[in-house]
Amino acid sequence: MSEPTPYRRNRRSAGPEQWTGPKRPYDLAKEFVIALIVVGLIAVIASLVLSSPDDKAVTVQQWARQAPADFVATAVTELDGTSTSASYGPPYNHAGPGQQIFFLHLQNWVGVRLPVDSAVDFVLAPLSTVTGNPALTAALAIYRNASATEQQAWASAYDTAISKATDNDPAKVAPGSYGPVPTMTAALLRMAQSGALTSQLVNEGSGFYQDNYTRPLLFLADSGYLGDLASAQHLGGDQWGMMNETGSYPGQAWLWLYTMWYQISPFKTSGNADALVWAIMMILSLGLILVPIIPGVRSIPRWIPIYKIIWRDYYRDHPLTKTAPEAEPS
Prior knowledge:
Elements: H1 28-50, H2 60-66, H3 68-80, H4 106-110, H5 118-127, H6 134-145, H7 148-164, H8 181-194, H9 196-203, H10 214-221, H11 224-232, H12 256-260, H13 273-289, H14 300-303, H15 307-310, H16 312-317
């Protein structure tokens, strides 16, 4: 019987080779302990040098104390309906059209599932719980007895005046026809600085555990304060930021593909960016799952023979081999 061709020879068919060189004792337990200590030290040093700061959660009270002017300005936008949450649309209200993908009106189909009335939930309802403040009580009565047109005019006028004031400071607003709005927002600021506002925003509909933070998060998100904090940590929408924790490390590097779309047109200027980027990522994820059955794509490994690098030892010993290793026929 003739010898099998070189590219049919199976390296594994031969028995194990016996070592004939020098031998010495080997302490596996000692090696394990040394490796454990070295790796542990490296991990501790790396965590001290590269770890991310454990910043505390941002609170409404912190916002009101550190940026009172921004707090008041944001409260006014809640009253005049120009804040992000007030004009967002589903699932919070019907004020906005909602995001869509071509003819797929995704947010409108889901509807308003978490109803939020920004003026009532963030300003009027919390203020109504305050007692012992006759000026505030009178201001709330005036505001509620006024028509919707008057309420809108007062809030819009005060909003415009704040935007024109030095440093957007409500204390430097020029005199004008603002109705009871300045009195109401000043009282809301004091309430927030004391910490009482947070409990009012959280308690509503939270049940026994009081863990529904939708309203305080939306209120904070409407502010410029939270955006400034995000930008300082490189987490702004135009900064490619996406992290598990605040700070520079460790970051979710695997999400670069998701955040990339927000940096390019038409997504970075589209009002439907979230929906469009989500759709693109779902298509790419589906394509990755279906790689083994997509004609052409599944053949890329044959066209780019990376397997020859992985099996380089085999192909070095068997230069005539044209196919992947296979067992020798019996």
